[in-house]
Design goal:
Blueprint lengths: L28 E3 L1 H7 L4 E4 L4 H8 L24
Antiparallel strand pairs: 1-2
Length: about 80
Amino acid sequence: AVTCEPPEVSPGNYGVALEREALTQQWGFVWDSQAMARDHVRVIDKVRAGSMAEKWGHMYPECELRRGDVLVKVNNNSESLEK
């Protein structure tokens, strides 16, 4: 079984590992601009078709990235991205 919760991920969250092979590959996240402006957090508004994020969801459907998911940490950094 595939698990989305490696040991370093807090309960209630799941880890996603996306690695680009080329800088031209898109991550595929469309962020909720109101949440970014109001709360300084990145909330997924949608995932672009054909993107790495969508491919992740096909590979791991129980960990699919979807609207409303909140970015908590990137590259082990949990500080606010919008300062």
